[in-house]
Amino acid sequence: MSMGYTKSKGSWDALGNHLSTSYETAVAPASAGMRPGRTRRTFVRAYSGDGHVLCGGAGNSAADTLEMIRFAGGYFDANLVPHYYITDYLGSNIAVIRSDGTLVQSTSYYPYGEPHRDPAASAGFGISDPEPPMSATTSASTFFNPYLYGGKEYIRRDGLREYIYGARMCVPSETRFNSMDELCELRPWESPYLFCGGNPVRYVDPTGLVFTRRATPIVEALEQQSYKRLIESISKIVSGLCSYILSGNKERMKESINATKAYVRTINEVESLKSSQTVYDIEVKNSISDDKEIKGASNYKWRARKFKIEVLDDKAYGWIAHELKHAYQFETGKLSTGTKDDGVPFYDKDDEKEAYARGQLFGENMPTFSENEAGYGDLQNGPKQVDPKASDAELQKLANDHNAWFKANGKIYSPPIK
Ligand SMILES: [Zn+2]
Fold first, then answer.
1. How far is the CA of 374 from the centre of ligand 1 (A)?
2. 199 CA to middle of ligand 1, Å?
3. How far is ligand 1, taken at its centre, from the CA of residue 148, in Å?
């Protein structure tokens, strides 16, 4: 079914999080004096900041209803029934299975993401029209899951069917984005509208996905470690409390409270990397550094446009935690990366101290910063970080002068590529 929405508008916050899409329908002039071509807001879809909770409703009315609550790998529908995604190797949702085992939606795609079957297909389980229902009375039977190709949301906007890719929209029927890549000067040989380098069968565009596929299991394992150690440290607070009551010694209790806080901080930082617009990757390598004591590395890779972490072992939680700390420092404008010759404006001993302290939470054999300090002899003392009040031009100059990459105010700054 096609509702013929004449207009739609989206709103995003400064970081590119999708907040709402409103759909408007043409209204026939009902009385003399009413201008033709007026529109009426018929439907609004609102999102939580991270895009995980959706509400649908009739615009201005108070009758907004819950459409879906998303979770990793599926969603609850309006009746809070769980549904699970089946995905292909590109992360596209090819089927939705309801918790009772029923197949409720199946979709296959052209290479750039246009569904094979017209969404209106009634036979089988083609997706229904990617438009919201006309009224607020979304029932479980008319509701469809709009998260399709690459797990991205498929919507109709101004008559075109588009996927929401973070800050840009991709038009699968045109096999391209509908606006330029803001970092297009880094790839002058490519069209700034190109999707996945023109090879969508091989590559995915992970904008907003945050951790790559390769990094995800490693990060999840670290998070599990964090939770396990968090629980242990909480139980140590209790025994520390007992020893305080019995002997008046506060130290054990204090130590455990600090450890508990540190694990919570670790989990929060990893979660915030997950909802970043920057892609973070982890690669396990055979060698990292000439200095045998340094077993991890982190750098922003401008060609791939991702922050890449390298470690020697996917179970080396201490080093993974250390490097993820650097990722968080990069995310929050405390760390820049670049070539050593020109010097990077804010990467300092303080950053390493923080990362070593983080690493020690996860590995009994992790060195302390002072044990490895010789390897960081040329670093300045810190903390040094980006000035949050600096203008765009000042930040760009900083990147140019130091040949450094960093993130500030949600944007990656990059020097001119020689
Ligand atoms: Zn480090």
1. 13
2. 35
3. 38
Burial class of residue 207 (count of CB atoms within 10 Å of its CB; 0-12, 13-18, 19+): buried
Distance 296 CA to ligand 1 centre (A): 7
Residue 209 has pLDDT above 60, yes or no: no
* Neighbouring residues of the ion ligand 1, judged by CB less than 5 Å: 352, 355
Q: Nearest Cα to 16, choosing from 208, 180, 178?
A: 208
52: CA distance to ligand 1 center in Å?
33
User: How many H-runs (helices) and E-runs (strands) does the chain carry?
Assistant: 6, 19
Residues 6+ apart with CB under 8 A from 41: 22, 23, 24, 59, 60
- Distance (angstroms) between ligand 1 centre and the Cα of 402 equals 20
The Å distance, Cα 266 to ligand 1 centre, comes to: 16
Looking at the DSSP bridge assignments, the partners of residue 338 are 404
C-alpha 366/C-alpha 416 separation (Å) is: 38
Token pair for 148: 């399709």
Cα(210) to centroid(ligand 1), Å: 21
Contact criterion met (CB below 8 Å) for 304 and 298 = no
What DSSP state is assigned to residue 147? B
Q: How far is the CA of 42 from the centre of ligand 1 (A)?
A: 53
355 Cα–ligand 1 center, Å? 6
pLDDT digits (tens, 9 = 90+) for 279-327: 899 999 888 877 778 889 999 998 888 999 999 998 999 999 999 999 9
pLDDT in tens, 153-169: 887 666 678 888 766 78
Q: What values do phi and psi take at 209, rounded to 5?
A: -85, -25
The closest of 277, 274, 304, 281 to 208, measured between CA atoms, is 277
Tens digit of each residue's pLDDT (9 = 90 or more) over 165-205:
766 788 888 888 888 776 565 557 778 788 776 777 766 65
Instruction: Decide: 242 and 251 in contact? Cβ < 8 Å.
Output: no
> What mean pLDDT is predicted for residues 352-378?
91
- Bridge partners (DSSP) listed for residue 412: 407
Phi, psi torsion values for 148, nearest 5 degrees? -120, -105
Per DSSP, 179 falls in state: S
Ligand 1 centroid to residue 307 C-alpha, Å? 14
Whole-angstrom CA distances from 312 to 126, 218, 317 are 45, 12, 11
pTM of the predicted model over 0.85: no
